[in-house]
Amino acid sequence: MSKEFNRKVYLQDKPRQQAKDELIQKANLLPEIETVPTRNGLGRVTALPIFASLSMPHYHASAMDGIAVRADETYEAHEQRPLHLKKNQQFIYVDTGNPVPSEFNAVIMVEDLQEVDEETIEIIAPATPWQNIRPVGEDVVCGEMILPQGHTLRPVDLGALLAGGVLELPVVKKPKVAILPTGNELVQPGSPMKPGDIVEFNGTVFSSFVQEWGGDPLLYDIVVDNPEHIRKAIENAADEADMIIINAGSSAGSKDYTVHVISELGQVYTHGIATRPGKPVILGEVKGKPIIGVPGYPVSAYLALEWFLRPLVYHYQGIQEPKRETLHVRLGRRVVSNMGAEDFVRLNVGFVNGEYIANPLTRAAGVTMSMVRADGILVVPPESQGFEQGETVEIELYKPIEAIRKGVLFTGSHDLSIDIVSSLLKKKDVNRQVISSHVGSLAGIMAIRKGEAHVTGIHLLDPETDTYNLPYVEKYLAGEDVVVIPFLKREQGWIVPKGNPLGIKTLEDIVEKGGAYVNRQRGAGTRILFDSLLKKHSLTSEQIQGYEREMFSHLSVAAEVKEKENSVGLGVYSAASTMGLDFIPVADESYDLVMTKSFFDSEGGTLFLDVIQSDEFSRMVEQLGGYKVVRNQSSIF
Ligand SMILES: Nc1nc2c(c(=O)[nH]1)N[C@H]1C(S)=C(S)[C@@H](COP(=O)(O)OP(=O)(O)OC[C@H]3O[C@@H](n4cnc5c(N)ncnc54)[C@H](O)[C@@H]3O)O[C@H]1N2
Ligand code: MOO
Questions:
Q1: One domain for residues 455 and 565
Q2: Model-level pTM?
Q3: Which atom, in ligand 2's list, is nearest to the CA of 280?
Q4: Which cofactors does it use (predicted)?
Q5: Ligand 2 binding site (Cβ under 6 Å of any ligand atom)
């Protein structure tokens, strides 16, 4: 029988550092030692100092191919007075690595010898004692310490150990980390999915992090939301592992039993930390093993793991946690933050006009792709309310600086073709890819104006002239050094559910048949097109059901339409077809690129142009359907 717990749980707002210090201090980590063959030692941490049991070399070895001689018998040799030496009496032949017998003390290289006959050689310069000989222990001396304890073994270390006669060595046992995914909604990857099911992927991410940090992950089966099951799983884990991670059920929901179970079985030190995301963390102990309850949302979970598990895993191994590179960047957009809690903001970073520009990604804790895309993370301290656009801040980097320097910062209206450009660009240079933020056409133009992007993609209809894009460039980018590149003609149309259940063909149909419209954000080209269609048909936004619900890309409009029977959106054909939806063409529009002149002239710009002018690109884009690649002359402003 499962025991019912009181639902009311109030989370603490404990400072992260304090929570971490307490956890580490209370964690009674008792690292164990194991012996491994030196050959399998890569990445392991030495548990004790390691001493050589053999010298390297363990005999005087010739360092060159040549002859071994007694130096004092060669002093007379001179260019004008060549000296003859007798084989087996005054010299012997040796190769590199051969032992030099004790009666000899120098080696002369074969290049410096003249063979007189089978038994005699001639030299024209004296040898100095010990020249070209590697004395015993030149590399490693028997009894010498090869490595201290707490050293992470690298390939070169393994060589020195083997040379020093160390065939096996004591290392710190990898800490075993039990990982318990919990939740009735979770199913194993690959299972058939019904609504409400969620693929259990956090477990794999956690296991992989644990391996990266030097631990040994034990990923458990999914545990259902039932206190009895959770209790059993935790008790089991505490017997088997050195530390325990339990995922989800950390908050205050009706099925969030974790904190109660932990306090029953052991002790809870912390429930709730002053961070966003990541607040509902549980830190405690069961049977003397540290246990960390991390929130279910993936981004919160990964961050919490890094804050609390990573230090434990490194601490157990007796080594320093590696630090990330940091970088000063200028913010392309404002970042607001609540006082009293640390905010963690994932960012894209680009190098524009000699400056690093960072744009915040979504802050939603359920968006794993924001972690995939992020170049770095900004930590906004608890006492700060955030930063203004244009402010310089220090961030931690997730990627090498080289890749960031070479990234092409695309800010503007989303189009699937930009993903194709990115992948073709990466094919040309692995360090180059397009980092795109989807902000709409007008915001894209503004980003170019402020020097916060290399390229923008725009599709802006000017209702007065009934032309696309150029009027906007002339208006908003007057006096800026930019290049306009005619890029694509694409079909915009009504995106409707498969089979077009409402039978929508025109704008009037949406009003008359009660279609629920999925709109785009202000400043988006598609929004401007829709508003101008409304005007043309003498309709008002009040007549459009759903007008206030704004999405930020064609694909999110399509995804929304897929969800609802009576919905309709405006967007490109490729978005409809990707989602398996129907499409009714409305207008052909021009989607063009605007880039800064300095990017146009740069190596990155040249590669970018090569890509978009390639046949491969045209083929891939036209395959999406609804596109025609345009090959007109660019105009330089
Ligand atoms: N009334 C309140 N509700 C919530 C609060 C709060 O303070 N008061 N906090 C919110 C925050 S912030 C977070 S974070 C979540 C944390 O909730 P739980 O830790 O209880 O997690 P679940 O609700 O079970 O799961 C949330 C979500 O996470 C995904 N998930 C979970 N496990 C996995 C997994 N193994 N693999 C992949 N994805 C997983 C899944 O999408 C779940 O829906 O609570 C808020 N609510
Ligand atoms: O902690 Mo929740 O993690 O803010 O999303």
A1: yes
A2: 0.84
A3: 1
A4: Mg(2+)
A5: 276-280, 295, 297, 300, 365
The answer to the question of residue 7 being in a domain is no
- Residue 381 burial (10 A CB sphere; 0-12, 13-18, 19+): exposed
Q: Into how many domains does the chain fold?
A: 5
Strands 275-276, 198-199: pairing is unpaired
Structure token digits, residue 149: 């304890």
Beta-bridge partners for 35: 170
Would you tell me the crossing angle of helices 615-624 and 416-428 to the nearest 10 degrees? 150
Last residue in a domain, options 172, 192, 225: 172
Write the single-letter amino acid at 637.
Answer: F
> Whose C-alpha lies nearest to ligand 2, atom 1?
278
For a mutational test of ligand 2's pocket, the pick from 271, 300, 307, i.e. the residue with the most ligand atoms closer than 8 A to its C-beta, is 300
Any atom of ligand 1 within 6 Å of the Cβ of 365: yes
Distance 300 CA to ligand 1 centre (A): 9
Q: Are 548 and 517 in contact (CB under 8 A)?
A: no
Structure tokens at 62: 């010739």
Nearest to residue 539, comparing CAs of 501, 519, 509?
509
Ligand nearest to the CA of 342: 2
Pairing status of strand 176-181 against strand 243-247: parallel
* Among 558, 595, 590, residue whose Cα is nearest residue 451: 595
CA–centroid distance, 472 to ligand 2, in Å, is 40
Q: In terms of domains, do 48 and 113 share one?
A: no
Q: How many CB atoms lie within 10 A of CB 211?
A: 14
Cβ neighbors of 481 (< 8 A, separation 6 or more) are 596, 597, 598, 637
- Does 454 fall in a domain? yes
Nearest atom (ligand 1) to Cα of 202 = 36
Host domain of residue 288: 16-30+175-317
Closest CA to 353 of 605, 57, 576: 605
Q: Which ligand is nearest to the CA of 247?
A: 1
pLDDT digit string, tens, across residues 510-551: 999 999 999 999 888 899 899 999 999 999 999 999 999 899
Q: Whole-angstrom Cα distance, residue 299 to residue 399?
A: 17
Q: Is residue 128 part of a domain?
A: yes
Q: CA 76 to CA 125: how far, in whole Å?
A: 8
Q: How many whole angstroms separate alpha carbon 234 and alpha carbon 224?
A: 13
Q: Choose which residue among 276, 292, 302 to substitute to test ligand 2 binding: the one with the highest number of ligand atoms within 8 A of its C-beta.
A: 276
Q: Is residue 8 part of a domain?
A: no
Element (H, E) at 399: none
Residues 208/268, Cβ–Cβ less than 8 Å = no
CA of 276 to the centre of ligand 2 (A): 6
CA distance 379 to 116: 78
Three-state DSSP class for residue 470: helix
Q: Which two tokens stand for residue 243?
A: 């530390």
- Which of these, 489, 511, 470, 495, lies nearest to 559 by C-alpha position? 495
Q: How does pLDDT run across 161-206, given as a tens digit for each residue? A: 999 999 999 999 999 999 999 999 999 999 999 999 999 999 999 9
Q: Residue 477: name the closest of 456, 498, 463 by CA.
A: 456
What is the Cα–Cα distance from 523 to 520, expressed in whole angstroms? Answer: 9
